[in-house]
């Protein structure tokens, strides 16, 4: 059984050794395996990886963005969170409105060509300034389509009604904790073509036993080096705050992966990480005066005792 941070490292090592070389949407290439699971006991600390530094503030602001039902990166940029920039930026540079230098395959070219990277950074800074300061521009190019927050909070039905899945699942946990229907889905087949990136973490289910709330996530596509550490911490945090609202303790986070992969341009970074020793997970401190998940702000969360190894930089495949 893969458990804790060592389980994450063991799976990464397994993928490097046994993964199938595959082509992918980004034309980067991956080493891939299918169908694995990791488990994290949330009573043993908050599962923020220690073999490389993971920016907790970015995880919190992204999760709050999902919870708000927001799909525009303006909120993220206002909180100095740049993790979704590339997908919105692509919308702009692929549009008829864009008049700058050619940005084709900017994700790969910016890593390989110093001169191009300078042009790319210049255009990205222009883009970010426009998102932050031009409301019309932000509405047109900052929105990522009906991604996670939209599906969690405002799922549109065939009857033109909407379902607030997150609110409904909290109510169900409170009123019928033994139900087997504590499920939130981000995968809406009708909306997938209109999303900047179809949901990678597609469905999650809660489970109540012995006064504890556990969560299992099914993730169809799992970028082990960059994405998965964020996903682990994000859903662990979601479990903690929903448990808090429902008067429960946090139990386990169970992470089930479909296509678990390492990008070919992340191999050396993964090997560096595998050469490091794990350290104890930090503790999570939550502002207990907030009663509702929908009232939390960035300042309501604090890590105690986080002592990671240095961060390891790697390119994002867009």
TrEMBL record:
Q: What class of enzyme is it?
A: transferase
Q: Which Pfam families match?
A: Thymidylat_synt
Renumbered to this chain, the signal peptide range is none
According to the entry, every stretch annotated as the Thymidylate synthase/dCMP hydroxymethylase domain falls at: 7-318
The record, for InterPro entries, names: Thymidate_synth/dCMP_Mease, Thymidate_synth/dCMP_Mease_dom, Thymidate_synth/dCMP_Mease_sf, Thymidylate_synthase, Thymidylate_synthase_AS
Q: Cite the binding residues for (6R)-5,10-methylene-5,6,7,8-tetrahydrofolate.
A: 223, 317
Q: Which domain of life is it from?
A: Bacteria
Molecular-function GO terms, alphabetical? thymidylate synthase activity
- EC number(s): the record gives 2.1.1.45
The record's keywords, sorted A to Z, are: Cytoplasm, Methyltransferase, Nucleotide biosynthesis, Transferase
Give the residues annotated as active site.
200, 200 (nucleophile)
Q: Name one GO biological process term.
A: methylation
A single cellular component GO annotation: cytosol
Q: In which pathway does it act?
A: Pyrimidine metabolism; dTTP biosynthesis
Protein residues bound to dUMP: 25, 180-181, 220-223, 231, 261-263
Reaction catalysed by this chain?
dUMP + (6R)-5,10-methylene-5,6,7,8-tetrahydrofolate = 7,8-dihydrofolate + dTMP
The reply on keyword Zinc-finger is no
- The yes or no answer to whether the keyword Methyltransferase is present is yes
Record's subcellular location = Cytoplasm
* Role description: Catalyzes the reductive methylation of 2'-deoxyuridine-5'-monophosphate (dUMP) to 2'-deoxythymidine-5'-monophosphate (dTMP) while utilizing 5,10-methylenetetrahydrofolate (mTHF) as the methyl donor and reductant in the reaction, yielding dihydrofolate (DHF) as a by-product. This enzymatic reaction provides an intracellular de novo source of dTMP, an essential precursor for DNA biosynthesis.
Q: Which NCBIfam families does this UniProt record tie to the protein?
A: PRK01827.1-2, thym_sym
Q: What binding partners and quaternary form does the record give?
A: Homodimer.
- Tell me what this protein is called: Thymidylate synthase
Q: Which organism is it from?
A: Lentibacillus amyloliquefaciens
């Amino acid at each position: 059984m893969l458990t804790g941070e060592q389980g994450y490292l063991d799976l990464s090592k397994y993928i490097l050794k046994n993964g199938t070389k595959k082509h992918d949407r980004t034309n980067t290439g991956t080493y891939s395996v299918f169908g694995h699971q990791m488990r994290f006991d949330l009573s043993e600390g908050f599962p923020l990886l220690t073999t490389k530094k993971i920016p907790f503030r970015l995880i919190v602001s992204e999760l709050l963005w999902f919870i708000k039902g927001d799909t525009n990166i303006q909120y993220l940029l206002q909180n100095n969170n740049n993790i979704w920039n590339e997908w919105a930026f692509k919308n702009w540079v692929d549009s008829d409105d864009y008049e700058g230098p050619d940005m084709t395959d900017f994700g790969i070219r910016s890593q390989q060509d110093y001169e191009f990277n300078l042009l790319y950074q210049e255009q990205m800074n222009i883009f970010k300034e426009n998102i932050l300061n031009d409301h019309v521009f932000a509405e047109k190019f900052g929105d990522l389509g009906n991604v996670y927050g939209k599906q969690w909070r405002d799922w549109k039905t065939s009857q033109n009604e909407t379902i607030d899945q997150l609110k409904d699942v909290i109510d169900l946990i409170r009123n019928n904790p033994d139900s087997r229907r504590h499920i939130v889905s981000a995968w809406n087949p009708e909306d997938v073509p209109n999303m900047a990136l179809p949901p990678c973490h597609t469905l999650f289910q809660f489970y109540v036993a012995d006064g504890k709330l556990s969560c299992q996530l099914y993730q169809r596509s799992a970028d082990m080096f960059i994405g998965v550490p964020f996903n682990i911490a994000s859903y662990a945090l979601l479990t903690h705050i929903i448990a808090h609202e429902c008067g429960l303790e946090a139990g386990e986070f169970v992470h089930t992966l479909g296509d678990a992969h390492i990008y070919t341009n992340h191999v050396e970074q993964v090997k560096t990480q595998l050469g490091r020793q794990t350290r104890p997970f930090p503790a999570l401190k939550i502002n207990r005066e907030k009663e509702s998940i929908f009232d939390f702000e960035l300042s309501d969360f604090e890590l105690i005792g986080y002592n990671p190894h240095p961060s390891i930089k790697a390119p994002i495949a867009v």
